[in-house]
Amino acid sequence: MAERDNGSGSEGRPLVSLRNVAKTYEVDGGSTVAALQSVSIDIADKQFVSLIGPSGCGKSTIMSIVAGLLEPSTGEVLIDGHPPARAREAHELGIVFQQPVLLPWRTIRANCRLLLEVAGLRSAETETRIQELLELVGLQDFADLHPNQLSGGMRQRAAIARALCLDPLLLLMDEPFAALDEFTRLQLNKELLRVWAQRRKTIIFVTHNIAEAVFLSDRVIAMSPRPGCVIEDLAIPLPRPRHPDVRYTKDYTDCVVHLQRLLESAIPVG
Amino acid sequence: MVLKSTIVRWRILGAALLLVMLLVSWQAGVVLFDVPGYLLPSPLEIAQALWNNHTTFAEHTLVTLGEVLIGLGVGILLGLALAVLMSWSPLLNNALYAPVLATQTTPIVAIAPILIIWFGVGLTPKVIIIAIFSFFPVLVNTLSGLQATSRQMVQLMKSVAASDWQIYRYVRIPMALPHVFAGLRLAAAAAVVGAIVVEWVSSTAGLGYLLILYQSRLNIDEAFATLVILMLLGVTVFALFAWLERRFSWQKRLGIE
Predict the structure, then answer these.
(1) Contact at 8 Å (CB) between B109 and B115?
(2) What is the mean pLDDT of residues A95-104?
(3) Helix H or strand E segment including A107
(4) Based on the structure, what is the number of domains in chain B?
(5) For residue A185, which phi and psi values (nearest 5 degrees)?
(6) Both B122 and B235 in a single domain?
(7) Residue A16 in 3-state DSSP?
(8) In chain B, what residues touch A119 (CB-CB under 8 Å)?
(9) Chain B residues touching chain A at CB-CB below 8 Å
(10) Which residue range forms the structural domain that includes residue B24?
(11) A37 φ, ψ (degrees, to nearest 5)
């Protein structure tokens, strides 16, 4: 079945590297709670990696630490050899959250333009790029509408287009489809793969949906409940480009079942 | 669009009809039950008082309106500035919270005489008191509006190394606008109340001054006429801000509730 893969592989320096990253929070009364316990992960360039685990396993904490929005208590994160702060300044990060977080007073196109304006990169060339990305996510006919006029799935597509507008090296997706209904989620899974095939980025994808993680990823990293640590690093041996029918193959089912068992055994019965 | 304007027209017509009915029954009540004029003048008597003294009323209305506009302007600027500072820095928030609250719990009628001793009977104490009345609703609403931005939106902005100022300019301030407008409308109404209070305490002109004067002389028709003008003044200032809101608030423009 699937074999272990530490991700550093033969492609030289990893794009994202977490070295013994731990995070403890102070709670009232001076005691501390460990959210993350010494996590080390290397992610190669253009790799699609999912972080999976029960809620409270610190997957979103890892996301925030990689984005440089949260300082780790110990350890370090390097993105393309530099700390996250540098990656932010170089506009190498794209983020998609569970909620689309679009600005309601801006049109979809203007929402995509937001980060370019903030970064001072707006130009005729970026306008063309926005148009291409809106076409890529299928929103070209809705570009001049406001978010309240779009469905949840469309808003999430807009959020993906916005994240790609800066042409980042690394795309961080924090449970991007968790708030959508099952059909829309499947549809967007397929679309994400199509988009990724055309705009090849390194993606860190946080989810608690095992099937979704296996279908999308090159590699699935499973985490234990609090304090979070890596309990499995599984390479997904499914071919690319991935057809939805791949979900009916034995390799796919084996991966899903393996992860399912692992995560069930990791969660204390309560 | 046609439908909407028709509905609006009916609504205005309905309100006007109700007002007319109210005035007619008031007039009828006063005549029928022979209510003495020093208790309750009839609408016609009030209208007559308005007409007979219209130059006096115009003069004093201008004085009050001027005070209201200047005081309201100062109050709005103060409220907006404090809201931005307090939302930006938790330290300033803690430091300013108690003093701000104190301005609202202290009876204004009690501090007005002190301000008049300090600054004389001129415009300054009036502007200060009207500003005290009007900055608070602006501050409270703007503050909650500035905090309405989601944490994730801020994280998104920070992911491209946006400065604090950029986060305010692109996200927090526009996001706060609907709340700000709600605060402005309340402040406009409060400013008129503030103006009357300070004119009552001490002044030589303005509608509050007129009201005191007419009451002391038992000119009840004129006192009621003054009240009518005050009411109209409040409604006008309120309507001005409602118009600004329709014009400038993205929420109204997009029809989001």
Answers:
(1) no
(2) 93
(3) none
(4) 2
(5) -60, -45
(6) yes
(7) strand
(8) 160-161
(9) 150, 152-153, 155-162, 166, 170-171, 174-175, 250-251, 253-254, 256
(10) 1-34
(11) -125, 105
